[in-house]
Design brief:
214 residues; alpha/beta; Collagenase (Catalytic Domain); 8-stranded mixed beta sheet; globular
Length: 214
């Protein structure tokens, strides 16, 4: 789960922060991800965010084959049957208001059996606010948020790492500094991601996938 938390001493982001960068090789394992953008209505900006997410995921040695199922997307409306190992990312306008001053950047419900670990959600409104106050581009932060949640889906684990992309706590200062090491998976996470990409998850219920595009 990605959250932001504002404190008087400074804003803190509970990370759904994400990865950084080497291009994926053709021999790398790959994953197919369907994207349903119900927030930005901007195909060019969405494409930039997906490139950022792909670069982050490629840092773990996994290539991404995107299916842009959004209105105006290249694969709209994605009526073909979802493959057993395909994942789904929804970009939604905003998260529900929180009583404790936290705001989720996104979340990925995890079923360790793999059956329902297929859908992640990222909230574009929260991404915009965090990007604005830290000086990042919204596309870069959206891409990192997507990559972080995809990490949860492939790792099939709700917890976070102690450092790097999957760590749970980010300050605004760290986001603004944008150090490459902060956006990379650990060696062990990378190994697990590559293994997961080579072993498709069990097919989820059809109804669950149909709801992703609503």
């Amino acid at each position: 789960m990605l959250q932001t938390l504002v404190r008087t001493a400074g804003a803190v982001t509970f990370a759904t922060a994400l990865l950084a960068a080497s291009p994926a090789r053709a021999a790398n394992p790959h994953v197919v991800i369907r994207v349903y953008d119900m927030a930005t209505a901007d195909a060019a900006a969405r494409a930039a965010a997906l490139r950022a997410a792909a670069q982050a995921i490629a840092s773990a040695g996994v290539a991404v084959d995107w299916r842009d199922c959004s209105r105006g997307g290249a694969a709209h409306p994605c009526r073909t049957v979802r493959g057993a190992g395909d994942l789904v990312v929804r970009i939604m306008p905003a998260s529900a208001p929180s009583a404790d001053a936290t705001a989720e950047l996104g979340f990925a419900p995890v079923d360790q059996s793999g059956r329902a670990t297929v859908i992640a959600t990222v909230y574009y409104g929260v991404v915009q606010r965090v990007a604005s106050r830290t000086g990042l581009s919204a596309q870069a932060l959206l891409g990192r948020a997507i990559a972080h949640e995809v990490g949860h889906l492939l790792l099939r684990a709700p917890g976070h790492g102690r450092s790097g992309l999957m760590r749970p706590l980010w300050t605004d200062a760290e986001l603004a500094q944008n150090r490459p090491g902060d956006w990379a998976f650990s060696d062990e996470e990378s190994r697990q991601l590559r293994a997961a990409a080579q072993e498709p998850a069990a097919a989820a219920d059809t109804g669950l996938i149909e709801q992703a595009g609503r």
